[in-house]
Design a protein that fits this description.
131 residues; alpha+beta; five-stranded antiparallel beta sheet; two-stranded antiparallel ribbon; 3 helices; 20% helix; globular
């Protein structure tokens, strides 16, 4: 993932139950970010955004006010998926297609192979991760 210019900002996966649940947020250094999720009802989608930073005035206050840092997330698109595994295939294809340096799709899929191949459940015990 790092070779492609992407990093995992947040991940919450439970693909073992009758109704898989997933939420994955990936970020790229230039402000592009991706949110892939499957809810408990089985609805799956991948949404992409571009984060823009600017100096501006807060529109919720009136009168004279100083410039402040403003953040705007621009929605780029949504792709609906058939389920959790299809969502992971769509997400890995998007990451490979939108890498900051050329990377093979097979390498990205290999990085996510443990999640895509078999059911996985990670739990934490006493501050340590156990599989």
């Amino acid at each position: 993932m790092a070779l492609a210019g992407w990093e995992i900002a947040h991940i919450d996966l439970d693909l073992t139950g009758e109704r898989p649940k997933a939420e994955i947020k990936l970020e790229r250094c230039d402000g592009r970010w991706l949110l892939a999720r499957v809810d408990r009802l089985g609805r799956a989608c991948v949404e992409t955004f571009q984060r823009e930073h600017m100096l501006g005035m807060n529109s919720s206050t009136k009168g004279r006010r100083p410039l402040s840092a403003q953040v705007n997330d621009v929605f780029l698109g949504r792709k609906t998926c058939l389920g959790a595994r299809h969502l992971l295939r769509v997400m890995t294809a998007y990451v490979a297609d939108n890498a900051t340096t050329p990377v093979r799709l097979a390498d990205i899929r290999h990085a996510w192979a443990a999640v895509m191949d078999a059911p996985l459940r990670l739990t934490a015990r006493d501050g340590k991760e156990a599989a």
